[in-house]
Every structure is written in structure tokens, then in C-alpha cells.
Amino acid sequence: MSSIACYSRVSTAEQNLDRQLESTSEYAQRELGAELAEIVEYRDKSTGTDTSRSGYRELMAAVDAGDVDTVVVHEISRLARSLQDLERTITRVTDKGVEIHFVRDGLSFGDGKESPMRRLQMQMLGAFAEWQARVKQMNTKEGIAARQQSDEYHHGRAPLGFEKDEGELFEAADYDRVCGVLDMVASDEMSKRKAAEELKTSRRSIGRALDERPELYGL
Fold first, then answer.
1. Domain 3-127 top-level CATH class
2. Pairing of strands 107-109, 3-10
3. How many CB atoms lie within 10 A of CB 88?
4. Cα 79 to Cα 32: distance, rounded to the nearest angstrom
5. What is residue 40's predicted lDDT score, i.e. its pLDDT?
6. Residue 2 known to be catalytic
7. pLDDT tens column, 118-158
8. Of 2, 3, 8, 11, which residue is the catalytic one?
9. φ and ψ at 216, to 5 degrees?
10. Domain with CATH 3.40.50.1390 in the chain
11. Structure pTM?
């Protein structure tokens, strides 16, 4: 029996999938006439810019097996951060006769309504998402390099999410987690108090990271 697949992804374990789950489910019912029993949810909580995720892999296996009629995703950046991965995924889905809808972006493929302009819009949005990810990585690296020139970082304590080795600054094992939490605080999705609890630090440290050192976290 075929179904409507709703795919959701967040970048860290601390982020919440509820908004995406609600958005995709409501769209499937409102725009596609789906019953709740027809909707199957595929979820990922991971960090990275590729598409090698368990929920994604399960979704694509279901598409390949003919178990899915339609895929619904909240927005393009949730499916892929690379334009090449995005185009490859859309082609793989639509080649199986399956529709794919991006709720927030207002784009659909495989529904018989494709146009050159719609494909161009998808490419532009995918390219922008990829560019954002690369800029964030670049800003972080540049921020670390700039901070290493300061005496404060050679003699003071390492910033949140970092370690020191003979005066040099390095990303700690929990760096990705720290970035995810700080990003949520910066976007008003989490309070400083909650962030401090999650990272086992003080609200002052959270505030200092956001106010004085945002470039270290790609913010």
C-alpha cells in the first residue's frame, strides 16, 4: 500500500522536529487530501551537509520500493544542503513516478506541472542553502584564526566548545552541539537559561559566546 511520506530533519539532537512535523502533516491533509493513516513520518536529527542519514535512507528505500506516492518536506534546506544532492534526490524521486512537495518554498515536482521557471527556482534555492552552509563554515574558520592572534586566547581559558593545546585553539568534541544550541538561542528558539543547562555552563558564558564571539560559531 502506497503512502504519503513526510520527511523532517534538524541539525542537532537539541532541536525540535515538531514544527516541521506539523507543517508537513497539515499540508498533506489540506493540499493532498491525505488521511492521517496514509501519512508515514521519516525523521533525522543530525549534523552535517550531506544526505547520508538513516531517516533519509529509509525514505529513499521506500520510494525505490514503490511504497510512496508523494514526499512532503517542510523546506528545501531540510532535504539537502548541497545543490547536487538536491537535484539528484528530486530526480531519483520523480523518476519513480513519485511527487515531491516543499511546503515553505511553494515548489512541487513530479506532479505534471513542472516548468523551466520552477526548476530554476529550485536550483536557486538549493544553491543558496549550500552557499549559506559554506559561508558559515568559512566564517567560523576565519573567526578562529583571528582569535588565535589575541593574547587572550594564548593565556586565557578556551571559549565554549573549544580546547587549547600549547596556546592553539581547537574545536572540542562537543563543538557541533555547542553551535547548534547557540544557533537556537540566537534565533529565539531556546532561552539562555535552557542553553546553559544543556551545555552545563553559565548563562554568562552563553551570553559572552553570542555577544563577543559569534564568529567562532558561524553565527
1. alpha beta
2. unpaired
3. 13
4. 20
5. 96
6. no
7. 666 666 766 666 656 665 555 555 555 555 555 554 446 77
8. 11
9. -70, -20
10. 3-127
11. 0.55
